[in-house]
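Please predict the structure of the following assembly.
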Amino acid sequence: MKNLQTEDNNIDFSKLKKYLSDKKEFIDERLDICIKNSNNLKLKESMKYSLMAGGKRLRPILAITTAQIFDCDIEKILPIACAIEMIHTFSLIHDDLPAIDNDDLRRGKKTNHVLYGEAIAIIAGDALLADSFSHIIKNTPSDVSRDDLLRVIEEISLACGSDGMCGGQAIDILSEKQNNIDKETLKYIHTHKTADMIKVSIRSGAIIAKAKDFELEALTDFGNNLGLAFQIVDDILDVIGEEKELGKKVKKDENKITYPKVYGLDASIHIANIYTNKAIEALSIFKDKAEYLRLIAEYNITRKF
Amino acid sequence: MKNLQTEDNNIDFSKLKKYLSDKKEFIDERLDICIKNSNNLKLKESMKYSLMAGGKRLRPILAITTAQIFDCDIEKILPIACAIEMIHTFSLIHDDLPAIDNDDLRRGKKTNHVLYGEAIAIIAGDALLADSFSHIIKNTPSDVSRDDLLRVIEEISLACGSDGMCGGQAIDILSEKQNNIDKETLKYIHTHKTADMIKVSIRSGAIIAKAKDFELEALTDFGNNLGLAFQIVDDILDVIGEEKELGKKVKKDENKITYPKVYGLDASIHIANIYTNKAIEALSIFKDKAEYLRLIAEYNITRKF
């Protein structure tokens, strides 16, 4: 198995691992109460099943970690962080559908439609997306400026919409099985399907924490580059990873446009490193305040799952 | 064919028909520019196809007509009205999917998945829902209060989410083919699957137009009753309507819980009339100002499509 690592193999991630694990536990607790039980038990159960199916919570952690650069009260960003994870979960449920990627397994567990049927899985995804916006408005503390809140909602809606995540996903599907492999299309897919939601997680944290324009710009640059590095690492792991470690089928991207397919494996690893370095450089103005964001970028490139 | 009419058969709807037709034309023009072309042509085409497939535009017309009771500038409510139609269109695309209602025909035209394939149809629905929120925020004039705008977005998100339209749709599907026909479940489905989005269209118009609390309450009452009457009429037309006039398959509700199935046809017509009368009564405080809302409720019960 090829090794996918930064040039510096000696970074100690134990502090980050503890941080990620604490934050994940904290977010899981809050996510667990996002879906209120009602007399619509089966739908709620289906939504909750996928929401609580053991995600890494990367996006909410990025939102919180960014806000905390500016010593922002975590409660101000938490409803937004949870909503972003709800949207991410919606996208996973729909991606796994028979008509799209037709995956039976996700994070080592049965996918939503396998357990609840296609109809409920489609509606559970829809409902997670729909509910995410009221979740933000209902739960964000009233001392967050209304203008900032509207700006964040607009950015999240754009990031997951037809020119964001959905757009990337559509082009990904339409490009399947095409022989004509095109680097621009590949970057479009990765930017919109993956990086847009990662970027908006970071921007949301910065906006709610009242970052200045130049700080928001630097963090946007970080988000874009981290998002691309993250998806390229995912592509690479699909080729070299172990099914058991990943908790999902590997080699499932065989019909898709991926970095390893377009650039080859070694060049893909190199490109992932370039984006990682660019991401880290963008953080320089924050010095030690951005320690965890920097560690997350470094850790991404060493991860095995 | 049974006649589905109010007790007063002599209402002249020519004025209303002209009003509806003018408003539909106006809304169609605005909807046509809601979906911006980008390099994601196929997805945008698919979204636009369903959005422009000839809907009656009932929900946006209700939002605008309600706002105009209070002499509200139409531009203040128009982006919200269009967003509600985008959400309605998303729900139709997903309802028609093979895994849900499996309909090939809608308003006399091929359904989205027949034309674009299931994967793109799923994503087109997702994207219409996702984009609707940024559409509101980007296009609503800045003199609309930020608090009112957040309130409307929250209400729309709830109305289409897991305790609203998606919730009603889930129970509708889970109740199919059940022998145990239950009036409470039937009302739950109709209230949430249909009435919630009709109600929120009306409430949005009232909130943006700065209606007073007692006026908002009366309009909510109107919306609830109109929404239920509207869905019961739909159920009835599925039994007695002509496929050609409806532009969709009739008798397609055979596996579903419907009013005619639970109450019989005559009683269903009677119940639709009761809800219509309740809706009209709720408008009494507005006198002539609510003329078009009253006519819409009266017209609903006479419609053949």
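The two ends of chain B are 14 Å apart (CA to CA). Chain B touches chain A through 57 residues (CB under 8 Å).
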